[in-house]
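Homework help board

Subject: predicted structure for assignment chain

Our instructor gave us this sequence and asked us to write out the predicted structure in token form, then describe one feature. I got the tokens but I'm not sure how to describe them. Can anyone check?
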Amino acid sequence: MGRTARVLLATALLGGVVSGPAEAATEKIKWHKCADDHGVQCGTVSVPIDWAHPKRGRVKIAVARVKAKNPKKRIGVLVVNPGGPGGSGVDFALDRGGLSKAVQERYDIVGFDPRGVGASHAVKCGNVGRAPGGYPGNAAAFGRLKAYQTKLYRACRKKTGLLYDFLGATSVARDMDAIRGALGVQKVSYYGRSYGTWLGQRYAELFPGRVRGMTLDGTMDHSVKGAARFSADEAKGLEAAYGQFAKWCPTSKQCAIRGKDPVKLLDALMLRAEKGKLHEIDDPKVRLGPPGLAQMVRNSMYEPIAWAELGQELAELNRQKASVAKKAASDQGPDGAFAGILCADWSLPVKDYKALLDVRAQTRRAAPHVRVNPLGWEAVTACLGRNKAASDPQRPYRIKGTPPILVAGGVGDPATVYPWAVDVNRGVFGSSLLTYEGAGHGSYGLSGCARKAIDAYLLTGRTPVLGARCPAVPPNFNQGMGAVKTRSSGVPLRF
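My token output:
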């Protein structure tokens, strides 16, 4: 596949057919220096809220550009997106996408805030009251959660306006092509992480002839159908990530539970949490239930450098006295922006409490130790209040006519799980799969091997050989946090 992919890419670089509708903006972007970094240019592109009916109103999409450091060897434009959904591509560009100096020298790096995000008319919902528990224990509690989600959806629609109905990837992909047109280029390359990989996939479906190259790092699989499958897949990913932590812990002096079996310890803590005999580390009056414990694990799996802290937390929980904490933890509450974007493209129907119990049971079977991935569960329950069908629900891929796409996935990714990368590679003709054998979300910022392979693809069009794998990288506590960051600290760890 590697050799064939290289031939296909070379053909595309020599002049592929530009396809797709011609609605893209023709007016140029009026650039100015970004307030946070005068070395970066900022601007906006005006696009229709409803691409099918442009007269219904417009929205300005915020864009940022870092020009190639070596203009004489400039390859072209590299559009970047950090995921989320809800991550700021402008912030990602300000951070140069965490990309190598070699890539920065030869590409104009362009990021944008997708519609409904950041400076592109961010979703607003207001205060809709205290959220009920996100893990209902009976039919009545399920009814309260669904009613709250419905109320939240209506509040977001009222405060955000018509745009709330058009937050899906199809609209964003058309916005991306408007940005391409406003930049005055025929083709763009793309580097997307996490949820940003789905945006890239949709762009490739709609505008295959305008893709020069595309890297999907930490890949979403838009062919996964059903709430139970989605939640179970997510839980399997978190279980795999914790499994890597469990193998590392006995080998490192940095692990506070060294000498104990991390899997058996987690099982014991989950049983105590189930009985109400664990409390929050910073508040002995508040119970820590199984979902809260799973969340603690999840938050430490995005980067292995956080494993030392997880070991300390598990050790502290293990030392707690077996008293019953009476006060229940207060849920953070659903996120209207997350629901508005995710549920536009994902159909995850849960008819009633009985159906939710089935989702829970299948998830528990898929991951008997971590039990649930709170991110997958949040995605399922977030869509309960949506009063209309997803505009572009899951289906087989329809990507044809692009250069070879590079799909990267990590076997211990707790958010965009490895089987998804495998499925996307199988579903997208001519694509190439790069496997990172370690834990963490994404691969470019965690593995020098993966970075080298992705750089080679971006700079030369050379895809990895068939079966290419990069070894796991253990946490290096002398280097600190190493994965790609964005400036926006307000966006929680999701896809």
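Reply (TA_rk): Your tokens look well-formed. For the description, you could write something like this. The chain is about 40% helix and 15% strand. That's the kind of observation they're looking for.
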